[in-house]
Amino acid sequence: MVRIAASAVAALIAITIAIVWLSRAPPAPEPLTIAVANNFIGVPLWVAERRGFFAAEGLTATLQRLPSGKLALEAMLRGEAEVATVAETPLVFAALTGKPLRVIATYAGSGEHAIVARADRGISRVADLRGRRVGVLIGTTVHYFLHVMLIDQGLTETDITLVDLPAAEQAPALAAGQVDAVATLAPFTTQCQRALGEAARTVPMGPHYWGYASLAVAPDLPQRRPEAIGRLLRALDRTIGWMRTHPHEAMQVAMSELNVEGAVIEELWERLGFNLALDQGLVMLLQSQARWAIASGSAPGQPMPDFRALIDPSSLARLRPGSVTITPPR
Using an 8 Å Cβ cutoff, are 81 and 72 in contact? Predict the structure, then answer.
């Protein structure tokens, strides 16, 4: 009887220890596939991958590297990725055509857009683009930036010949003389400059435009996989904090991923801002770009969406409530 009682007590102790150990064990890793644009808006994701911040938050992240945010968004919409890193213009066109998506956070801002032109064809400023062939990936943030730059000089898109040109093809087309100039962004700016050498004339964005890098997901993902989204945001928050205190190490990651020289990275770094947020400026920019898309005929006959309904602040509000300042839809 004593032996049976002792065995029962030992078994009870073992079960208790196992329960306590299991309760303290880290949760199982959450898998998540992220389509990442292969430009500067991808930097925090690459840093999180390389420095182990995804893994530290219990996330098994698979990064799909794609040439642009437009292609990353399309991959997400096709179901090939669960999250996409994307700037605002592709979001506008997706919303105007009724594509199902939600923005759960912005994590970076950028102002690295530029026009690279052939000085040997008499182009030294934006006004010289009148009547010229200008390459740009249509439907992207760079396309909208070009529109803003033209308006600033009293021109419109009808004053130039737009050539729909993927970013990776811009430097060869410029060097071959197929276009007179391109509107682009880093690292493709550097590629275009190298292709032309001394014949390159670069007009930076200056104060004309500031864009947002967003995380876009399917509308039901925050509710269907709240833990995975929470871990993603925590990992990015942790990454951004590390990047602020280790800027040179973060630049090294950007140099490696983008194959860009350190001097180029350092020059552009000042025009980048990393921060998890959802603010009213994003809504205003989406509205402005939608008006441009409709007026230019790029999205004819489409009603203006309520872009506040495109944004789901629930996940970010749980992590950093003070960073959400968007007015909710009525």
Answer: yes
Query: Which tokens in the block code for residue 283?
Result: 């809504």
Residues in the chain: 330
State the burial class of residue 237 (Cβ atoms within 10 Å of its Cβ: 0-12, 13-18, 19+).
Answer: buried
Fill in the amino acid letter for 219.
P
- Residue-wise pLDDT tens digits, 185-235: 877 888 899 899 999 999 876 655 678 999 999 999 999 999 999 999 999
What letter does residue 327 receive in the DSSP assignment? P
Q: What is the DSSP string of 42-68?
A: GHHHHHHHHHTHHHHTTEEEEEEEES-
Coil, helix or strand at residue 75: helix
d(CA 309, CA 103): 10
> Which residue numbers in the chain have pLDDT < 70?
1-27, 111, 205-209, 330
Cα-based distances in Å from 305 to 80, 215, 245, 287, 290: 26, 19, 39, 8, 8
* 8 Å CB contact between 209 and 203: no
Report yes or no: 174 and 192 within 8 Å, Cβ to Cβ.
yes
Of residues 19, 63, 23, the one with CA closest to residue 42: 63
Contact status, residue 59 vs residue 34, Cβ threshold 8 Å? no
β-pair partners for 105: 215
